[in-house]
Amino acid sequence: MNIRTLSLLGLVGVLGLAGAVEAGRIPGPGIDTRRCEAYSSVTYHDTFRGGELAVVSIVGDGDTDLDVFVYDRFGNLIVQGIGLTDRETVRWVPRSTGTYRIVVRNLGGVWNRYSLATN
């Protein structure tokens, strides 16, 4: 197994351990792998069910610091993962079903290939 496969398995494990595989995102859990350029960001728009645990996790390639931010439809910051690595997990319970903007930001001077998983 390569490091990328192990990272993805770890990412799926985080969501599974959270007990959140059945809840959250509409239409269901999702995984996306992308490249985020240096000092740049990637934006997602996902719908989550109200009253159910929502989980978003990222695992990068280890080259830079990645952070994740979640905003509601009004642009209010709901939750953020701003640690010093490229592995972040955020959790929240939406008040109502709606679309949320998820932003992955690369704080480093080189690109970072990461995977994002939602429950």
Report on the structure:
It is a single chain. The protein has one domain (3-118): Sandwich (Jelly Rolls), CATH 2.60.120.380. Helices cover 13% and strands 47% of the residues. It contains one helix and nine strands; from the N terminus they run H-E-E-E-E-E-E-E-E-E. The chain has one helix spanning 3-17, and strands spanning 25-26, 30-36, 41-48, 54-59, 66-71, 77-81, 87-92, 98-106, 112-118. The protein has a five-stranded antiparallel β-sheet, with no helix packed on it. Strands 2-9-4-7 form a four-stranded antiparallel β-sheet, with helices on one face. Strand 5 and strand 6 form a beta hairpin. Residues 14-21 have low confidence and may be disordered.
Describe what is shown at a glance:
The protein is mainly beta. The chain is built from 1 helix and 9 strands, in the order αβββββββββ. The protein has a single domain, classed as Jelly Rolls, CATH 2.60.120.380.
Please tell me the total number of domains: 1
List the helices and strands in order: HEEEEEEEEE
Work out the strand percent. Answer: over 45%
Counted beta strands: 9
CATH architecture: Sandwich
Overall shape: it is elongated
User: Which stretches are poorly predicted, pLDDT < 50 over at least 5 residues?
Assistant: 14-21
Look up the CATH topology: Jelly Rolls
Q: Any idea of the CATH class?
A: Mainly Beta
Tell me roughly what share of residues is in helical segments: 10-25%
The rounded Rg comes to 13 Å
Secondary structure elements and their pairing?
Elements: H1 3-17, E1 25-26, E2 30-36, E3 41-48, E4 54-59, E5 66-71, E6 77-81, E7 87-92, E8 98-106, E9 112-118
Antiparallel strand pairs: 1-3, 2-9, 3-8, 4-7, 4-9, 5-6, 5-8
